[in-house]
Each structure stands twice: as structure tokens, then as C-alpha cells.
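> call design_seq(struct)
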């Protein structure tokens, strides 16, 4: 057998997490290699190329903080960065820090086995190449494995079918075409208004209506940018103290929606609605905890939908009746207004489900729709999908798939007992998707870097979370989730969007207490881990 190429660290994925991890690993003087399936860097922002793809975190904070010169020099044009801009930024980072030579592109990791004799991970890639490393770091992303629904007849369709996260690089010409979009999550909400402007006819197939708030994108205000740049480290430090690691949570009105009268409540909601963006969810401090406050917020948003959408029947179909904030908060760029266009039709597939894709379009339980293009905005096998796609085997040959058969379990969202020297960046059990992803990624990468430094300096051979620490951590993650309204509907947080996926709330609510816990674990000599 060919001997495996040896590294100190192998990192899977060259998105925001993988790039920064490579940078830090090199700083430690370690031989590191990133394995990336795509032909370039970018992760999420490489793959999600559908028209209208945009981040919903403000630009000044959705960026790396590790290099002062980088953050001073980079100019973002708008309040929310678009997919091409973020991709350009990440390509710039890769070039500026000379990261590309450390990345193997167009390479898929198929298997990773822990060799107990040598305390090394042995990896096999798609072309049969073997690699080995002491540390294996999964930077595979939380929303990277597309959920392609198993609809009968997909192969028979005469036109193109594309998932939003696998859009063709050369784009798709919607002009004069009849387009169907399935799904009204964040991706659907972003792509629908853009397609509507180009297509002859757009049919939106909606299973669940969406709670969404106007984003109110606009060019950045040079004075505000200058103010942030005058003390960027101070700004970063401040957002890290916020529940979501972002400035939207900074603006929380720290009182209950029920503590003010109906008129004042409406005034505050209106003010936030006009301001736009996620800070609407912080109009009051108990929207996501107190059912009464949640109902009042939901009533306000429904009143807005009825105000915007002219056809009353369409407006009613667009009004959600599940808990607001239970699925991931969405912000939009003219979403509800789109349904006033004469070339846009909303189809309720909760009442009459999709039965099949036909050569000429799509058939639901009560009608046929003629289509030239189908766009699947059907989301992801979130948080665990990309990890479980790889055949990961730890101590005693146990597979991660077996270990997580009833749902993901781990310690701090960073390590799984039985899988020594393997780390997950923003894995389940950490704030990840409930926080500003870049902030969470930097925190995880820094923690892992310090941990590896500690191991190397003390000449340990491995680090492994204990079963007891895992049990306590999983109980903690569940207890925190059960204290919010986030568990009261079918969301991808719970794995509910994937048929057969075990149900359980995967991310951890609350960034600052999590960071505190991670630091405490280190201060106590890596409490909950065994170092050999
Ligand atoms: P989401 O938020 O999971 O949305 C997927 C949408 O697709 C949602 O409306 C689903 O309805 C719908 N869906 C999923 N499967 C089907 C099938 N089989 N038939 C019909 N409709 C379906 O994914 P996004 O890509 O929009 O956003 C994911 C995250 O990316 C987002 O939160 C941001 O963090 C960025 P459902 O609601 O399940 O009834």
C-alpha cells in the first residue's frame, strides 16, 4: 500500500473557518493541509450563487477581526454584503496570507479513520489518495449539505433543476421563462424577488409561510464606517459581548413587550420595522421567550403582510401561524411586495402537496403547473449533514454515524468522546448558526489553536472529551433550548426538515456564556477532556 502523506493538521473545508484555521495552524509552525471539495475558497459563499444571495449580518462585523490591517483596508459597499462581495473578500484573504498553496482543491474527503496505535487520523480522498495527520479539524460548515427532496419524476423534467446552494457558476437566464421555486426559507425569500423581475412567470410553491422582516439594505454610511474603523478592536470586543455576537443584538430594548401599552408597543415595532434587519427581533427583550410578547409581535408582522400584499387571499397564505422566531429569523429585500406582481403566483403546497415533477413542470395534488426551470430552495441537512457524509471512524472503529444515530452529542460542540484529536468548528452543541458565524468561527479556531499549542508544548499525544462531560453538555444544550420558544415548531435547528433525521435542538442559545464556559474549561486544565 502507498504510504500516506503526513501532516500535523488536516482541515476539511476552505470556507471562512478553514481559511482562518490554516492561518493559525501555520502560525504554530505546524504542517497543515486543507482539503476542499470546491475549485476555490469560500465555502458557503462559493456554493450559494443564486441571484440575490446575501448575508443578513451587517458588513462591518461579518468579516475577520484577526488582522488589523485587513479590517482597516477592506471596503464594503453596502449594509449587507452580497455573495459575490464576500467571495471576493475571501479570495483576497486567501491571496493576502498566501493560503492557497496549503489547500488541495477539487478534493473530497470520503473517509477518516483514527489509528489508535499512532494516535493519528488516516484520511482517504475521492481519488483514493491517503493522508495522515495528528489533528483533524472539520471546517465543513453548518449549512453545506443541500437537502434535495425526493420528488418523483425529477429526472424526467425537460428543463434545468438547480438547488440554490448548487447554482451554475455561469448563472441561469430566467428571461422570458416560466420558473418554479420550491421553498420559502431564507434562500427562497432572497431568490424569489430577483427571479420575479426577470421571468415571464414565477410560481412559488410554499409549504410554510415565512416570518420575514425588511432588510433595508443601503450603501454604507462613510461616517459610520469611519467611526467603527477608528476603534475596530473596541467594536469587535463589544459585539462579542452580545447574545448573538452581532450589533443587531446590541440594540435590544431591554423591557418586555407586555410592559408597555398597545400604542407604544406598535410605535416601537414600527420604528424597528423601518430600521430594518434582525434588530426587529430585539424590539423587546422577551419576544423569543414570552408567548404573549411573541403573539403581539406576530400580530404586528401579519398586519404588515396584509398591508403590503394587495390580494387578500394571497396575503392570508403568506401569514404564518407558527411561533415567530422559532425558525431562523429571515430578513428580505422586497419579498412580500413581489406577490403584487402580475407574473407571480403563490401555490400553497401544505394543502395540496407536490406529487411529481413531470417533463413539462410540476404536479400538485390539485393542479399541473407548466415550467421551464425549477429552483429548489429547499435548504440543508443542517449542522450534521456534511460531517456524516464522511465515513468517520474513531476509537475501536466506532463510526460517527453510529455515535450520532439518535442525534449529535459532543462536548462544547468541539469534540466527540471516542474521536480523539478531532475538532469540529461551529459544530452542533455550540452557538454557531444562532450567532454571527464569523465571530463564532474565530472563537472556535482560537480555542482549538490554543488547545493544540498546549498539547504540543506538553508533549501530549492526544486529547479526548470524556463521556461524562458530553452527557452534562448535551443536557445543558437541551435545557437552554427548552427555555426558549425555539423548540415549538418544525425547523432545521431540530432536524425536522429532513425525513428520518433524529429530532433534537442542535445549536446552543447564547454566545457570551458559551465563551465563558470554554475559557473556564481551559483555566481548569482542559476540564472534561483526557490528555494522554
Ligand atoms: P430553509 O430555511 O431550510 O428553507 C427551506 C424551505 O424549503 C422551507 O420553506 C421548507 O418548508 C421548504 N422545503 C423543504 N423541503 C421541502 C419539500 N420536500 N417540499 C416542499 N418544500 C420544502 O433553507 P434556506 O436555504 O432557505 O435557508 C437556510 C439557512 O441558510 C438560513 O436560515 C440562513 O441561515 C442561511 P418548511 O418550512 O420546512 O415547511
Amino acid at each position: 500500500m502507498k504510504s500516506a502523506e503526513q501532516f500535523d493538521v488536516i482541515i476539511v473545508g476552505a470556507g471562512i473557518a478553514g481559511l482562518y484555521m490554516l492561518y493559525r495552524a501555520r502560525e504554530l509552525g505546524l504542517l497543515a493541509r486543507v482539503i476542499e471539495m470546491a475549485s476555490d475558497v469560500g465555502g458557503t459563499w462559493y456554493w450559494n450563487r443564486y441571484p440575490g444571495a446575501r448575508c443578513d449580518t451587517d458588513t462591518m462585523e461579518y468579516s475577520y477581526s484577526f488582522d488589523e490591517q485587513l479590517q482597516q483596508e477592506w471596503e464594503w459597499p453596502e449594509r449587507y454584503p452580497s455573495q459575490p462581495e464576500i467571495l471576493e473578500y475571501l479570495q483576497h484573504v486567501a491571496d493576502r496570507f498566501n493560503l492557497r498553496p496549503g489547500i488541495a482543491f477539487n478534493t473530497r474527503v470520503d473517509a477518516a479513520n483514527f489509528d489508535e496505535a499512532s494516535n493519528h487520523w488516516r484520511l482517504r480522498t475521492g481519488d483514493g489518495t491517503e493522508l495522515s495527520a495528528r489533528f483533524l479539524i472539520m471546517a465543513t460548515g453548518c449549512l453545506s449539505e443541500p437537502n434535495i427532496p425526493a420528488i418523483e419524476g425529477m429526472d424526467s423534467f425537460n428543463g434545468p433543476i438547480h438547488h440554490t446552494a448548487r447554482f451554475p457558476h455561469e448563472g441561469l437566464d430566467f428571461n422570458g421563462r416560466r420558473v418554479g421555486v420550491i421553498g420559502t426559507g431564507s434562500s427562497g425569500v432572497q431568490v424569489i424577488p430577483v427571479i420575479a423581475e426577470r421571468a415571464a412567470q414565477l410560481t412559488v410553491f410554499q409549504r410554510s409561510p415565512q416570518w420575514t422582516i425588511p432588510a433595508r439594505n443601503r450603501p454604507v454610511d462613510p461616517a459610520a464606517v469611519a467611526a467603527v474603523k477608528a476603534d475596530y478592536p473596541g467594536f469587535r470586543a463589544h459585539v462579542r459581548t452580545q447574545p448573538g455576537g452581532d450589533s443587531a443584538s446590541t440594540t435590544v430594548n431591554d423591557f418586555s413587550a407586555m410592559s408597555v401599552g398597545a400604542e407604544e408597543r406598535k410605535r416601537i415595532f414600527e420604528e424597528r420595522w423601518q430600521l430594518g434587519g434582525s434588530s426587529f427581533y430585539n424590539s423587546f427583550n422577551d419576544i423569543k421567550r414570552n408567548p404573549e410578547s411573541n403573539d403581539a409581535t406576530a400580530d404586528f408582522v401579519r398586519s404588515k403582510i396584509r398591508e403590503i400584499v394587495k390580494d387578500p387571499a394571497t396575503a392570508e397564505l403568506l401569514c404564518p401561524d407558527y411561533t415567530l422566531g422559532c425558525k431562523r429569523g429571515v430578513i428580505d429585500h422586497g419579498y412580500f411586495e413581489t406577490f403584487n406582481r402580475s407574473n407571480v403566483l403563490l401555490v400553497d403546497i401544505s394543502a395540496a402537496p407536490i406529487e411529481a415533477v413531470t417533463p413539462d413542470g410540476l404536479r400538485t395534488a390539485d393542479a399541473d403547473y407548466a415550467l421551464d426551470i425549477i429552483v429548489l430552495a429547499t435548504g440543508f441537512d443542517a449542522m450534521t449533514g456534511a460531517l456524516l457524509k464522511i465515513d468517520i471512524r474513531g476509537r475501536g472503529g466506532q463510526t460517527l454515524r453510529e455515535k450520532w444515530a439518535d442525534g449529535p452529542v459532543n462536548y462544547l460542540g468541539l469534540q466527540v468522546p471516542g474521536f480523539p484529536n478531532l475538532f469540529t468548528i461551529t459544530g452542533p452543541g455550540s452557538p454557531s448558526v444562532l450567532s454571527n458565524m464569523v465571530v463564532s468561527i474565530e472563537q472556535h479556531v482560537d480555542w482549538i489553536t490554543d488547545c493544540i499549542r498546549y498539547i504540543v508544548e506538553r508533549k501530549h499525544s492526544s486529547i479526548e472529551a470524556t463521556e461524562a462531560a458530553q452527557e452534562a453538555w448535551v443536557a445543558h444544550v437541551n435545557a437552554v433550548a427548552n427555555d426558549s420558544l425555539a423548540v415549538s415548531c418544525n425547523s432545521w435547528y431540530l432536524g425536522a426538515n429532513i425525513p428520518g433525521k433524529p429530532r433534537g435542538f442542535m445549536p446552543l442559545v447564547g454566545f457570551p456564556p458559551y465563551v465563558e464556559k470554554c475559557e473556564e474549561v481551559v483555566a481548569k486544565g482542559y476540564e472534561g477532556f483526557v490528555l494522554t
